[in-house]
Amino acid sequence: MTPASTGASTTVGAASAVSAPDPAAPSESRMSPGGPGYRRMSLALFLAGVATFALLYSTQALLPLISGDFGVSASDASWTVAAATGGLAVFVLPMSALSERFGRRTVMTVSLAVAVTVGLLVPFAPSLPALVALRAVQGAALAGLPASATAYLAEEVTPRALVTAIGLFVAGNSVGGMSGRIVTGWVAQEWGWRVAVGVVGALAVACAVAFRLLLPEPRHFRPGSLRPRVLARTVRDHLANPLLRRLYAIGALFMTVFGGVYTVIGYRLTGAPFSLPQGIVGSVFLVYLVGTVSASTAGRLVGRLGRRGALYLAGGTTAAGLLLSLAPSLPLVLLGLVLITAGFFAGHAVASSAVGKTAAHGRAQASALYQSAYYIGSSAGSTVGAVAFHAQGWAGTVAVGLLAVLGVVAITLLGSRAARRERYAVTA
Question: All domains of the chain, ordered by start, with CATH?
């Protein structure tokens, strides 16, 4: 999957009008492991990732309780997840444009501040429509984090350390998703889902404050333009790049699997034959620790297998986990979740870091398009996975996931063929 040419005539004009790392800045002036500011930056973005995923998926482990409280089906309750991820998907591109003008650090700070404020209002939602509306606003506010964080890293971190740095940010996502679900599971078992999401909101406030205090000032950011024509031209350039299109589709498909599995798993584990209590179901999300490891080691995986090899391995691991989860044995179901989580986070880290490396200009927009596709996949997975579960049980959700993994493999194969054609054209 080598970068395809996007055409110099279409990129030069856009590059002059949008933010990009200063080509004159030596790589030594950027942060690298062991260097000044790198640890603070890593911890700050790790905490931002924790807050983002904890808030974004705060209702996912609580869906059975929300269904019971409002008297709605699994597919109706799943909208509390789909609305948040859908709001993020819609607003991530506009937010990335604001980050080009006002700076990555500023946009991330404001986004977190708004999201945590809404998070403190969520427990007081009087009805399911009100809860869904608040979640949509929360998702839209969080949109400033993913694309801005990736662009910040692409500008401030040395190229060799980029995959590792993004892997740490993704690892923060996994920790946030895990801790949010575990906390909500146990708190909800004693005091209900409203208190549980309130506790997650308070946790996110602490993360947001620490993020703002720790994140170093950017050194290589240059303000760009907010002109719609410039933004549209940048987006068109990215969508014209075959490699970027493949990476966007891969991110969406991986997240379709993940969103579907983790939206429905609570219903499966609280129902027969397992009939687990809510607190135990929340603790199942400890498997996110596997995602933390697989995301943070994605750089070494790419170094050994190459980008396409890493994606094949991630897809195969995810598929194996889906098949194992069909077993009527709780240990095998948990092992299946471990493999699904490891494969997903590795694939996501590889694909998202490749976007940052591939985009020659407008990195925030390139990352925003990836994040938009990624969270569209999450919304689709949450909704379709719940509908499939309602119609065919867990086997229906697994079938949706396997189709998505097949799509990842097919797209990666297309990338392999494109790379071979490019090599042949060069040597011919």
Answer: 32-215+224-427 (1.20.1250.20)
